[in-house]
Amino acid sequence: MTHEKEERSLIIIKPDALQRSLVGEIITRFERKGLKIIGMKMMQLDTALVEEHYAHIKDNDAVFPRIKRFMTATPVIVMAVSGISVIDAIRSIVGPTRGYEAAAGTIRGDYSLSIQSNIVHASDSKESAEVEIKRFFKEDELMQYEKINTVFVHSDHLL
């Protein structure tokens, strides 16, 4: 990270997005915002990883068993991204947790009416982002590269 306001965040594209073939659309929204993908993989979450990630609600017997079933039902896509003020940028792209409260134009506003099946998870702070990234990625799975903005002058020449 080179800019003082550059941050990293974790995004999980959840099973409902995979089932509904929304993965490309979701990734495109983050890329169009200018965020840099520094890690991405598809993985099947196991119970232990879900329990660790959702430790803050693990003891809620009314909610957690459904979330555990949901998050382990099919694979997910996990992404680590970076950018200037990336936490706030992602939260505005994603919308509030409750899909029925999310504005049109946000991922959840366009594709979700639910709390659980809300298409994506996004880190809510710099601190949680760093913990979550370490939970899902080994350090050697995160790429360091300069993101270069290019302008096409002619079809065969880049500036």
Walkthrough of the structure:
Helices cover 36% and strands 21% of the residues. With 159 residues, it is α+β, with helices and mostly antiparallel strands. It has one domain: Alpha-Beta Plaits. The strands form 2 sheets. It has a 4-stranded antiparallel beta sheet with strand order 2-3-1-4. The chain has a two-stranded antiparallel ribbon with strand order 5-6. It starts with 5 loop residues before the first strand and ends with a strand.
CATH topology: Alpha-Beta Plaits
CATH class value: Alpha Beta
**Amino-to-carboxy terminus distance:** 24 Å
Q: What is the SS-derived class?
A: alpha+beta
Characterize the biggest β-sheet. Answer: 4 strands, antiparallel
Mean pLDDT reading: 90
- Backbone shape: globular
Q: Helical stretch count?
A: 7
Radius of gyration: 16 Å
| CATH homologous superfamily identity | Nucleoside diphosphate kinase-like domain
Beta fraction: 15-25%
Structure summary, number of beta strands:
6
Proper CATH architecture: 2-Layer Sandwich
Estimate the helix proportion, in percent.
25-40%
Count of spatially separate domains: 1
Features:
159 residues; alpha+beta; Alpha-Beta Plaits; four-stranded antiparallel β-sheet; two-stranded antiparallel ribbon; 36% helix; 21% strand; globular
Reconstruct the topology from this structure.
Layout: E1 6-13, H1 15-19, H2 23-33, E2 36-43, H3 47-53, H4 64-73, E3 76-84, H5 86-94, H6 107-111, E4 120-122, H7 126-136, E5 152-154, E6 157-158
Antiparallel strand pairs: 1-3, 1-4, 2-3, 5-6
